[in-house]
Amino acid sequence: HNELIYGVAGLDQTFTLEIILAEDMIYVNIDKRRCLINRCPEQHGEQLFFFAQDTHVTFSSIKVLPLANRQR
């Protein structure tokens, strides 16, 4: 949504990005060094896409996996 993270060094090098979506929650882990958690109840859809604003980026080794069955 409109969340930002500043002060993450090394993003001009290869790094891992883990994104977990569960219902209306999004958890983003940047290279196991910084994280961002947000609730996005207004976001709906069945597609996933990646983009980078005002920079050049290469996405590789993308894995999309379902979350394990969860008990409520």
**Spatial gap, N to C terminus:** 26 Å
Give the beta-strand count.
3
Largest sheet: 3 strands, antiparallel
Q: Roughly what is the average pLDDT, rounded to an integer?
A: 83
Walk me through the topology:
Elements: E1 17-22, E2 25-30, E3 34-39
Antiparallel strand pairs: 1-2, 2-3
How would you describe what is shown here?
By secondary structure, the protein is mostly beta strands. It is built from no helices and 3 strands. It has strands spanning 17-22, 25-30, 34-39. Strands 1-2-3 form a 3-stranded antiparallel sheet, with no helix packed on it. It is globular, with a radius of gyration of 14 Å.
What key phrases describe this protein's structure?
72 residues, mainly beta, 3-stranded antiparallel beta sheet
Short note summarizing the structure:
This protein has 72 residues and is mostly beta strands. A hairpin with a 3-residue loop joins strand 2 (25-30) and strand 3 (34-39).
